[in-house]
């Protein structure tokens, strides 16, 4: 039971950090992730890709989605 409470405490800490991240930093991180994804061979040649639309302070995926739609 102690491991579970440690995991929950860590999750809450990381979520709090993510929520406190500035929007500018979130945009920078999102662009870095987009650039890294575009270099992945499996991503480039994939016929189907599952994505999510960000909620709250999650990484911005709209540019990735737009890029894929425009291909």
The number of distinct helices, counting runs of at least 4 residues, comes to 4
Largest sheet descriptor? none
Q: What is the mean pLDDT?
A: 93
- Given helix and strand content, the structural type is mainly alpha
Question: Approximately what portion of the residues adopt beta-strand conformation?
Answer: under 5%
Number of domains: 1
| Strands, count | 0
Distance between the terminal alpha carbons, to the nearest Å? 49 Å
What's the gyration radius in Å? 16 Å
Q: Helicity, in percent?
A: 55-70%
**Sequence stretches where pLDDT stays below 50 over 5 or more residues:** none
Shape: extended
- Name the helix and strand elements from N-terminus to C-terminus, one letter apiece: HHHH
Q: Would you kindly provide a written description of the structure presented here, covering whatever features stand out?
A:
The protein is an all-alpha fold and 71 residues long. The protein has one domain (22-71). It has four helices and no strands. The longest helix has 18 residues, at 2-19. It starts with a helix and ends with a helix.
What is shown here, in short?
The protein is built from 4 helices and no strands.
Write the topology of this structure:
Blueprint: H1 2-19, H2 23-39, H3 41-44, H4 62-69
Give descriptors for this structure.
mainly alpha, 71 residues
